[in-house]
Amino acid sequence: MHRYLSWIPFELLVATALGAVLGLWPNQSAVLAQAAPPAAEDELGAEEPEAAEPTAPQTPLPPSTPEPPPPAAAAMPAPPVPSGPPVVIPDGEAPPGPVAPAFPPAIPSIDYGARMRIAAKIQDPASPESMDDLGIQVDSDIYFSGAIHRMFKWSAGVTISYSGAPGSSATPVYVQPLDVIARFEPMPEFNIYMGRMIVVADRFTPSGPWGMDEFFYVGMVGPYGLTAAALQKSGTTGRDLGINVWGAPMGGHLKYYLGAYQFHDPNLNPLLSGRLQVSLLNGEPAFYQRTSYFGTKDFVSIGVGGQYQKNGSGPAAPATPPPPGTPAAVPANWTFFTADLTMDKNLGDSGTLSLYGAYMMFDGGVYNKWDNYWVASLGYMLPKTIGIGKIRGNVRYQRAMDNVDNAEASSILDAQISYNIMPWFARVQVGYRRMEMYQRMTATAAAALVAGNQIYVGVTLADP
């Protein structure tokens, strides 16, 4: 046999073996093409050379030698894969069946999460200045969002809350809608949201309590609801039904919101609400934002906002119909203005410094509770991790003036130490609150400044 093999050229044996391997693996070139598509041209722009046809052996075979099998045809190269994100559903067409998500980006897609804030509060409801009783506060959100198209998205969620009150049981846990938003997002500079959403005028609403250093949200809410909040006008949980047009040009260094709300009642005039802010050093391109970035980036934000609603300030509906002939109360126009400054600075080995302040003015005639309100906060976080988190200290002061003659100012002082395992998503907060709330004169009591003390231990957990 060795004698006959010597008649066969070595090059023919190699070509035959390669052809057999390619014949046994007909899909191998396609697999390689999916892993790394071959380029049609090299860096110089020259086309790939065509494969040369196999040539016949130059030395004739002996008569008794069988003809070798023809070499297998070379596998055809896979067509190049088009660049750019895949489009699963062509624009303007309906899918013929279930659509599997494409990656990246995953469209259609759905995302979900949950977050909660739970605090034990030491305070006596019957005597707010005494700290000899224990209460609890529970807040939780469950939220969903998704994308149907690269421009059309949605958000939805529910909120669960329980704060406790004298004489209440454990059963009245309040569950209500949070967000129900249809989102049209053609470009970062221009987006349209419709549905139930936050009303944006101040700095704090797009942040909420989840994006703040302090456990308690801003506003003059006294012990056990003694005082109405001094904040912009909005519905429950800071949300209302309406339309919001917003955008973040220049990578979020400039951002605007312009909305119309309170469409749930056709008898009401629309509540117009808007905000304009400039973020220096680093932008804030998203619809939501933080009040503190915990040293993840340096930024300085300056913003202004306002609201207007014709006949938007009026008396509360009486519990019983007024006697015949009683003159009808005339509502007043609601106006609101705010200006704010927010700063975060990472000092490297010296820690992180945070500062924010805001001023608000209200006008709604005699039916409006507040005349003005301001808040200032200073926070500092240590640079080194201790255990599994970093320690941060914070002091915040709030002050508001009631809209009646000879009123005394209401104020809240918060001093807090927090242990940040994963800001903003896992925190333990321990703090002290000192509250002095002005209560107007009533038919049974004179005007007074009601004081309160409170110690709290809070836990904030959220899905990152």
Q: What top-tier CATH class of the largest domain fits best?
A: Mainly Beta
Please identify the oligomeric state: single chain
Element order, helices and strands? HHHEEEEEEEEEEEEEEEE
**What count of helical segments does DSSP give?**
3
What is the number of domains?
A: 2
Global geometry? globular
Number of strands: 16
Helix content: under 10%
Might you state the CATH topology name of the largest domain? Porin
Distance between the termini: 72 Å
* CATH homologous superfamily (4th level) name of the largest domain: Porin
Largest sheet features: 16 strands, antiparallel, barrel
> What order do the strands of the largest sheet run in, or round the barrel if closed?
1-2-3-4-5-6-7-8-9-10-11-12-13-14-15-16
The helix/strand class is mainly beta
> Taking all residues together, what is the mean pLDDT?
80
Beta-strand residue percentage: 35-45%
Describe this structure in words.
This protein is mainly β and 464 residues long. The chain has two domains: 1-38 and 55-82, no CATH class; 112-315 and 330-462, Porin. Helices cover 6% and strands 43% of the residues. The protein contains three helices and 16 strands. The protein has helices spanning 2-5, 10-24, 28-35; strands at residues 109-122, 134-147, 152-162, 174-187, 190-198, 239-247, 254-261, 271-280, 299-313, 332-346, 352-363, 370-381, 390-402, 410-422, 426-439, 448-462. Strands 1-2-3-4-5-6-7-8-9-10-11-12-13-14-15-16 form a 16-stranded antiparallel barrel. Strand 2 (134-147) and strand 3 (152-162) form a beta hairpin.
